[in-house]
Design goal:
about 250 residues, alpha/beta, Rossmann fold, binds nicotinamide-adenine-dinucleotide
Length: about 250
């Protein structure tokens, strides 16, 4: 590793999911600013400054949409060096109110979606011998989540298992797979369905005393994608202001 290039992402080709909002949007913007070539994908429209070279419509809950996203990304970028999977959904509801539909949709979007994306991206990532994947899990995977997020917490625990499994099996092909586990990042997901009193109480749990910004989380993804993290794989990086110390 050249010391002058150890954080360089110049000309690396990345797909960023979830770029219409929050951490995914910040990650796409940051990677573009770092000189990377980026394609974004989301269920919703991605803002101009986060779009990269192309923005695709993706529904993680549909396998064909995941496969199409990878194929279109490769058509635009001519290859792929990394996948940053930020997109996810949460339905905050009490255990007694969880319907079969709600549970299956969250399983499909948060668990099956990343599985399909990673599997489809693998041949391209392996080709360069230096592929990188960053998957977003959640502090809820370790705590069981807070009120109303049981199913979401289940899916986020599965993301860690997926990432560790891929990290182990694809290491011989030069693919590194790491996870980021945010605590509270100031995005729509943090605020949707949460009262300000509940949010204040939650944020007080963090020694740093505040939510992280989307860019503070995105910067950690950029590190894991960079040559500086060449010897890091199968790791879950907590980005939580000290809220949970493991
Ligand atoms: N914000 C937090 O405090 C926090 C805490 C723990 C974990 N996380 C994780 O960080 C990641 C980013 O979260 P965020 O806070 O930026 O969320 P966000 O809600 O701001 O953004 C999530 C994005 O995912 C997209 N999305 C949802 N369903 C989709 C689908 N079916 N197909 C494609 N895209 C879909 C949304 O359109 C949205 O743009 C998520 O994986 C989330 O679980 C966030």
């Amino acid at each position: 590793m050249q010391l002058s290039n150890c954080f360089s992402l110049q000309n690396k080709r990345f797909l960023v999911t979830g770029a219409a909002s929050g951490i995914g949007a910040a990650t796409a913007e940051l990677l573009v600013a770092a000189g990377a070539r980026v394609v974004t994908a989301d269920l919703n429209e991605v803002a101009q400054q986060c779009r990269g070279e192309k923005s695709l419509r993706l529904d993680l809950g549909i396998e064909a949409s995941c496969l199409e996203t990878i194929h279109e990304t490769i058509a635009v970028l001519g290859g792929l060096d990394g996948l940053v999977h930020c997109a996810a959904m949460i339905r905050r509801e009490d255990i007694d109110d969880v319907t079969e539909y709600s549970m299956q949709r969250q399983f499909a979007v948060n668990m099956a979606g990343p599985f399909h994306l990673c599997r489809a991206a693998r041949p391209l990532l392996a080709k360069g011998g230096d592929g990188r994947i960053v998957l977003f899990t959640s502090q809820g995977a370790h705590t069981g989540g807070y009120v109303g997020s049981t199913i979401y917490a289940m899916t986020k625990a599965a993301v860690i298992a997926l990432g560790k499994s891929l990290a182990r099996q694809w290491a011989p092909e030069g693919i590194r797979v790491n996870m980021i586990s945010p605590g509270a990042a100031d995005t729509p997901m943090l605020r949707d369905g949460t009262s300000s009193a509940a949010l204040d109480a939650f944020l007080k749990l963090a020694p740093l005393g505040r939510a992280g910004t989307p860019f503070e989380v995105a910067a950690c993804a950029a590190f894991l994608l960079s040559p500086a993290a060449a010897y890091v794989t199968g790791h879950t990086l907590d980005v939580n202001g000290g809220m949970l110390m493991r």
